[in-house]
TrEMBL record:
Organism the protein comes from: Aposthonia borneensis
Protein name: NADH-ubiquinone oxidoreductase chain 4L
Key words of the record: Membrane, Mitochondrion, NAD, Translocase, Transmembrane, Transmembrane helix
Pfam families named among the record's database cross-references: Oxidored_q2 (PF00420)
InterPro entries named in the record: NUOK/Mnh_C1-like
Chain ranges passing through the membrane: 6-25, 37-57, 63-84
GO CC annotations on file: membrane
Catalytic activity: a ubiquinone + NADH + 5 H(+)(in) = a ubiquinol + NAD(+) + 4 H(+)(out)
């Protein structure tokens, strides 16, 4: 009749698809790209948590995945700070002008 697990999986896939669309079509600024990548990682994390809870699996892998998400965010923010300090903007079009 009504499959709740399938509905939950579809909603997380929709969240991930929305994040991918933002990443593909609105990638002029580094901050928007980083936010969309974090949104994709967060939707994947929540989807995996729910699948592991419904399946009765151990959540040890989720701690490692969460640590990797934090490391990815820290590296992205440090690149953003370096880019803003060197060029003054986080716009990708500025990078081509810096090489000339």
């Amino acid at each position: 009749m009504f499959n709740f697990k399938l509905l939950m999986l579809g909603s997380y896939m929709f969240m991930m698809l929305c994040g991918l669309l933002v990443f593909i079509f609105k990638c002029n600024y580094l901050l928007v790209s980083l936010l969309s990548l974090e949104y994709i990682s967060l939707s994947l994390f929540v989807g995996l948590i729910n699948m592991m809870l419904y399946g009765g699996f151990s959540l040890d892998f989720m701690i490692i995945f969460l640590i990797m998400m934090v490391c990815e965010g820290v590296i992205g923010l440090s690149l953003l700070v370096i880019m803003v300090r060197s060029s003054g903007l986080d716009y990708y079009g500025v990078l081509n002008m810096l090489r000339c």
